[in-house]
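Repro case for the chain-ordering regression, as requested:
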Amino acid sequence: MSEPPQIKVSISLHQDTLYELETAIEHAAKSNYNSITIPLAHRRFEREFVQEPLKTGHNRFTRSDLLLSSTQWLNRVICRLSCGVDCDSEDDNVRKQGESTLRQELSYAEHLVQNGYILLRLKSGNCANLARVTTVGLKGVLLVEVPMVNPKVAQANWRSDADYECGADDTWNWWNNFRSYADFDTHVKVALEFTADIPEKREIYRWLGEPVDAVVLSSNIFLTNANNYAVLSKAHQELLVLFYRTFGCHFIVKANPDDKRLVHYADYIKYILRSNYKKDPMQGYDDLLEIPLQPLYDNLDSFTYEVFEKDPVKYILYQNAIEEALRDRVPSSEIQTRTSIIMVVGGGRGPLVRAALNAASKSKRMVKIYVVEKNPNAIVTLSALINELWKDKNIELISTDMREFEPPEKADILVSELLGSFGDNELSPECLDGAQKHLKPDGVSIPCKSTSYLNPCMAPKIYSQIRSMEKSLHAKDRIVTSRYMEGTYVAYLKNAYHIDNPQAVFEFVHPNLDPIIDNSRYKTLRFKAQLDCVMHGFCGYFDSVLYKDITISIHPFTHTKGLASWFSMFFPLTEPVQVRAGEEIVVNFWRCVASHKVWYEWNITAPRQSHIHNVQGRAQPIWK
Amino acid sequence: MSEPPQIKVSISLHQDTLYELETAIEHAAKSNYNSITIPLAHRRFEREFVQEPLKTGHNRFTRSDLLLSSTQWLNRVICRLSCGVDCDSEDDNVRKQGESTLRQELSYAEHLVQNGYILLRLKSGNCANLARVTTVGLKGVLLVEVPMVNPKVAQANWRSDADYECGADDTWNWWNNFRSYADFDTHVKVALEFTADIPEKREIYRWLGEPVDAVVLSSNIFLTNANNYAVLSKAHQELLVLFYRTFGCHFIVKANPDDKRLVHYADYIKYILRSNYKKDPMQGYDDLLEIPLQPLYDNLDSFTYEVFEKDPVKYILYQNAIEEALRDRVPSSEIQTRTSIIMVVGGGRGPLVRAALNAASKSKRMVKIYVVEKNPNAIVTLSALINELWKDKNIELISTDMREFEPPEKADILVSELLGSFGDNELSPECLDGAQKHLKPDGVSIPCKSTSYLNPCMAPKIYSQIRSMEKSLHAKDRIVTSRYMEGTYVAYLKNAYHIDNPQAVFEFVHPNLDPIIDNSRYKTLRFKAQLDCVMHGFCGYFDSVLYKDITISIHPFTHTKGLASWFSMFFPLTEPVQVRAGEEIVVNFWRCVASHKVWYEWNITAPRQSHIHNVQGRAQPIWK
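-- result from build under test --
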């Protein structure tokens, strides 16, 4: 067995009370903790704001900043706000006391840690004022601590006098209220406390859609095994690994500072994570937004070609598809006499030509290849390849747009790779409709069919990224425009919750034998939410039949193994839509076609009516 | 009885089919109709888009524009789009045929009438594609014809095989879907068809909140009275008057062109409207948005002073209040010996001084008046009044801010008029807290208490106005910013539906005897929707006790008769909230106070969570 990789795991030791700051940091460090999580206010100092102006009381509620250097404050300490206050109390005095306490603490916490972490424990979903007081003008990260399962629910199992509202018992709703009131502020993240009880799988998946930044583990969820070691249950171990894989989150361990097993907890967590570590080949791309390519309108650059040519799977599948098509079209008896005409439309820097040559060689079929490419920069590469590497091959290079190409003969096989993350979004239908006239009546197109898929999803991280693209003269203004909120994006969506399974949207078949070709489409899809959640938009995928049973797919249920060329598509909604468990989600999707552009429009008609997004392609036209 | 006023009523004659355009216009004019409403497409010309390109069929589907002049097209004709098509059919061919038909007609209609009217009849709430096709890039007004009561509902009373969804039977939902999909486009308005059945009152009130531009009357809702005249039922007459008063709408009469009573219908409608006409003294202000004044921060100008001084009621009530206070403070036995000190804080151009002088004279009490005014321009007027008109009165003019004023003696009565539409929004609490130190221990403040009120409301017209304030480089962009959507406005709200009754929000008492004065406030209010509706924001009002039982109020249930100085306040929500009948609406309202400004924040927590509006007063601070 190979040595577990030295991945970086950051663990903070949570202290209920604190006597001596430097000693505590030293003690935690010796026990293999990177930092300590401490109450910001010192217990000894009671505060009374109503009777006493802040000025005189200010220096007395906590310790001095001079105890540590700025770097130590930032890296070694997570400040925790008082949780004994109630900003949402119906009693005005209690509420005002809470507001003043938290404002004072927040101000001091930001003084100490600048852009660092501040921890706030959430105790209910009645938190509008709390959200207002604690999130205004945040500079650092407000870690909102939420238990995975409401302690009252556990209680309710054996107590009948417990009073909690239905729905309000779900701690996700606490968090959802808080961050909705805070307008999905990117500075607000989750510190999710693992509880002894583990919720249903779908509830865990919903948490995976949230911006979880830390996992909180209490020493009391550790079990003692036969060897007297503290261990986590199998289920808790799996959770730990799952959250670390999704978020690369850090950990906060709640334990008594005198607990003899302090070192063990830290080492055990690291051990579990390291021994279950799997490198994600797409690491680094997580939830990063990209604008979909428009290879038809823009000429791709060398860097982009190179990235796509590196796909370990795609061109092998193309090669297999061409090989099978060649075998089907030319019986063994004719391999010496019959030459198949292959047209590669959109040759790029030659990967499909290479696939076609390999297919010909493997199937021992004779081929003549026409390579059509409109990008003059790619033509340079193709010419060089043909003149040097492929000079003994029967290849003709044509520098033109495939829609205007006038070949001297008709093709047996038309090969193209104009597929985008949503199938038709790089305009393969429009291109292939133009090129298919050069196909023999029995000729085949590779790919011969592509289908797009959609599902509604909760993706606050993506949503916040899009929102933050809005430029504003005044940083405090809230700006939402169609320019960003109605665009479409490509992203490796990791931190997202899929509200329902994908459904097919549009289908395109090549060659298209309809008497009048119309590539506009309109489809209504109906989904259902299993849990309360927030819908931020729709994830899009595609699959494509290259030839017979050879397909490529980024549909999550049928994803081609190793295929790396496409991330999912994301279609945002202008404003997040709060959805209740059991509610139906009805979405309309249009593919619109005009003389010089193609675009998608979308809106929802349930659970509530939305305006139509990307009207006339105002945010994102795809130029023909 | 006086002659009914010659109000302008515009009536169009709706023609099912049309043979000769000019004749028809002439015939209608002779029957006292201003215009005719005609099908845009000519029945003789069947259209088939799928088989035939538009170019060749284009000139054949309707009549030529040369038949009339542009002005005639605009003023004499309302074009009606085909209603035999179905843009939301599940059958792709039917849908595409519908799209092409309507696009062609719309294009031609806009060619004919430019910014004029185009009529479209709505037949169901399944209209996402219809809304998309007919509202994109609208230049004119799209009149969406909707029956007040669904004909199927009437049918269902005696047929059991009628199939319609529950909820979908409400034609308001058809309209609401349509305009929600069309993003509350200001170009889209309602042509409401009065049906024989009249819905419940609250449903009628909901329609009064919508942008109704025309009322459609079919000849078959006319009854024949004993004298063989066609008349409307009393209920229909009342509806007619109500809608005309609210909207000044025009009318479309559906009748057979050969109907002998054509002239009578037109004359009858005009007769009903004229004989029930009541001039609204506020006419011209309807639903116009104004930014609330900040008289503390900005110096009011002469025009504004003049407008407010014209209020026929306000200063009489002030005078009465001062008079009663004088009588209470100085018994008859002391009227020769005791002089009451009145301080008018915020003297403006003197109306309160005048009220105080009148009160003194009427009560025969002696007064000394200090007039405090910070606006140097108003000081000019006040000096002139004191030196000329009031030179024998005991009046001292002090040119300063009332919060800094240091008077030589303490006052019996402190009179001010710093009230805004939401009571405290012109900072009366802050001002009076500063001035009240000059009051004798038993002195009184006029006003002595003010209370603000709120209720949720549907006000698409106001909402659209606010939305259209957003400036955009590209007219097609959808832009929503806090700058406008989180501001507060003052408006004479006529075209609005009040979702629930107002409730009290904040209360301020003067003088404020709290040991520590805190003018920040936080209140949570709970409302309930009786009908499906859309919430665009909250209407705000106030009432104020001047002295004892003398009050001024703009609360709709207790509105002081004739009081004209204040319109309602409007607090918008960033995005309209679709509300279902029976749903609870929970809103939080904050009054926030900082060293140099005061502002309101608000959000809703039910039926769904909204972000907090006007955070830190980003859209609308009220400067101290």
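Ordering looks correct now. The CA atoms of residues 350 and 385 of chain A lie 8 Å apart.
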